[in-house]
UniProtKB/TrEMBL annotation:
It holds the Pfam family Hydrolase. The lineage of its organism: Archaea, Candidatus Iainarchaeota, Candidatus Iainarchaeia, Candidatus Iainarchaeales, Candidatus Iainarchaeaceae. InterPro entries: HAD-like_hydrolase_sf, HAD-like_sf, HAD_sf. It comes from Candidatus Iainarchaeum sp. GO terms for molecular function: phosphoglycolate phosphatase activity. It comes from the Archaea. One of its GO terms (biological process) is DNA repair. This is HAD family phosphatase.
Length: 294
């Protein structure tokens, strides 16, 4: 395949390849509740994970605690997440210990689905990663056509692998095509590793590589690495919010769903047939218009 026709794809995991909002909300609610912090995490609240100040699990849980303690609304935190971040340094040692324990329980619950607590009934979660058929079809097609695919997540390997196994998608990625931040490395550094691997192994320059993300911070990191970017509208970011950004900070492309890259970036047989039909209809309309004018 000629170089100019090759594409490489770097996928974010949560919110792009898998949609586990229901699972995460249940896990966060139960993890906080198990340490005595009563909070019901809703899908709307989980949208905060798209902000840098809430992206890491510890920051997410401590942020929820601070919002409850200080009476900060979701709208305030979403519009100005810095107001929550500024208060993290004021948490007491005891509050910090509670958050750390909630983080451990959060990680264990979402990976294993069950948590045994001394002297108490075990905590279990009931939400599982949905096996998204269209995502699996898209990844299968990319593999078949020779388009390299990589996965980047700021989270931990043990969690990400468990999610991908459950969703039935890990088989579509080569072992050295999976990049984990382990809650320590930022997306920007991971994108640099992934794009370097794709450029070196497949001779695809960064300008032909696409990052598929669901957060504006991820799009920003992709742009910093000279990568093209596609934002999927899976709930974390709205089209209205994207329109408010300066042109230079907007994603290259906006998709309704990650699976839509096949019809948008890569010409499939079905897509080419549809385009051909649209061209034929346009020609007929144009021709009929000329006849009427005469």
């Amino acid at each position: 395949m000629p170089e100019q026709k090759k594409l490489g794809f770097i996928f974010d995991l949560e919110g792009v390849l898998i949609d586990h909002t229901a699972r995460q909300c249940e896990v966060a609610t139960k993890a906080l509740g198990s340490v005595g912090i009563k909070a019901r995490i809703t899908p709307q609240m989980y949208q905060l994970r798209s902000e840098r100040e809430f992206h890491i699990t510890r920051d997410f849980l401590s942020g929820l605690y601070i919002m409850q303690k200080e009476g900060i609304s979701f709208e305030q935190a979403k519009t100005n997440p810095e107001i929550v971040d500024e208060k993290r340094g004021a948490l007491s040692a005891k509050e910090g210990e509670l958050i750390e324990e909630a983080v451990k329980r959060f990680d264990h619950l979402r990976t294993h689905g069950k948590l045994e607590l001394p002297g108490k009934k075990p905590i279990a979660i009931h939400s599982k990663e949905p096996r998204l058929q269209k995502i699996r079809q898209m990844l299968h097609w990319c593999n078949k056509k020779g388009f390299p695919v990589a996965m980047v997540t700021a989270g931990k390997k043990v969690d990400a692998d468990a999610f991908m196994h459950e969703a039935g998608i890990i088989k579509y990625f080569r072992k050295n095509h999976l990049f984990y931040g382990e809650d320590k490395v930022t997306k920007g550094g991971l994108f640099a590793e992934a794009t370097g691997m794709i450029a070196g192994k497949y001779h695809i320059r960064p300008g032909r590589q696409w990052v598929i993300e669901d957060s504006l911070s991820g799009i920003k990191d992709a742009k910093a690495n000279s990568l093209r970017s596609a934002m999927v509208l899976t709930g974390n970011t709205s089209i209205e919010r994207i329109k408010k950004l300066p042109v230079g900070e907007r994603p290259t492309l906006v998709l309704q769903h990650a699976k839509d890259i096949l019809g948008t970036l890569v010409h499939t047989i079905a897509g080419e047939r549809a385009r051909r039909q649209r061209r034929q209809v346009a020609k007929i309309k144009q021709k009929s218009g000329r006849i009427r004018r005469r």
